[in-house]
Sequence to fold (509 residues):
Amino acid sequence: MKSIKIRNLRSIKNSGNITLNAINVLLGQNNSGKSTFLRLFPLLKQSIEARTRGPILWFGDYVDFGDFNTAVSKGEKEMSFQFEFEIPDNHNQRRFYPGRMINLHENTTFNLTLMMKSSGENKTYVSQLILTFFDQKTEISFDANGKTINFLVNNEDFTDMFKNMEAILRNGIVPYLAVPLKERHSLKNEYDILDEIIKFLKQRLRANTKINTIESIIANSGIGSNKTVYNKILKEATKYSKTWENKVKTWNTENVDFIKYKNLIIALNYQGLLTIIDEYLVTSIRNFHYIKPLRATAERFHRRQDLAVSEVDAQGSNLAMFIDNLTLRKREEFQEWVKEAFGFYPSIKTVERHVSLRLIDAKTNNDFNIADRGFGFSQILPIITQLWSIIDESKRFRQRYNVPIILAIEQPELHLHPALQAKLIDCFTETIKLARKKIVELKIIIETHSQTIVNYIGHKIADNDFSEKDVSIVLFEFKDNSNDSFVKLSNYNKQGFLENWPIGFFEPK
Fold:
């Protein structure tokens, strides 16, 4: 996930494109939109983890946005989420979809916009899907029943070939198109596009050209920029016939025939393209992790349960059980990691059917029940445990796509002394470096009010301990005399000083 843009979600009328770097710091007044932006990540995660009628589950295990009508900005009827991401070419992969293989000729950066509305039943539905990549653009619109009402490829109208096809959610948040079973015998579908391409080629090839040759030409025509697609067609043309080769040589990227053929190929591959994109987004969203602002208070004892706990929950309430579930080797690795970063480490003590979470001071070896330590320890431990866990987990499972891991944390500074806040930032930066060594891309998003955190990141950059290019500062502020927020981006320079920083930002108004 390279960047995200939100329109008309609560107070955020238009966030603009917010690039996601290794560390992303969200700052602003209370109710200015920073928590709304951060909670988009758990909102998407809870949406793919449950079966829903619409693309978004507004109320779930992680966050509560109410419903569409309470989440949409006041006075607005439509909301949109925009995602920018890269999918590698599939030169060495075969992605088969009904009847054919989808070819991505090159690494492709997609920009996907999901426009959403609410029906009369307060059901959220995708009203428009806009997909851009390189110099290509597709737009498809749906009514409240999911029926296709408009489909354009680079402004060429293909609506008749997709008319009455339904938008159906299969796995994630991106709909794919299907003809209703009861109408399949009478409605046009994607194979009409195939017929149209075959007709197009027959008119430009010798009359006796075999259908197998035509199908091979189509199969090797894929997705990419105008230049790449044209060069690929030109290169492959020598395999088929002299007539086709000579015809293609008269084309260029502005030729009417080339544009028509390229648009037909995109329309033909559109179903498979949406499937690939939805698959990629689901994989990405499953790698979102979220830590709530009010984490669980420390308890003296926890009842031991015969449950496998593989992940620390958003409140850290199962922290003791997570550590208790670790193998001896993994627990020792985790303890050593925490001890090196913070000077203490957690341990588990079992008494009959109960476990207690202990903190061991690395210098003195003094052993304390976490309930007897400052409240800040119960707030920071879920964060650092989650950090270790997601990096450790990423080593063990290969994914089809090398998507980033995104950890979103609300108010990590809660109940932490400034010195411990600084250690937490050290932990963030060192974990990001460790992840890179393991070829894992980790992005951390923090919503904070802490001037200490902002200043300390600047010190680390000034000391050449972290790169200014890896940090984004996102400022959420209110427009004058309005409840609408706007977003301003700031950044550090090489000396660790903030640029584009509003004077008096941390001062009382």
User: Anything to note?
Assistant: The first helix runs from residue 34 to 38. The radius of gyration is 27 Å. The chain has three domains: 3-17+52-192+272-286, 197-266, 288-449. Residues 342 and 423 are 7 Å apart (CA to CA).
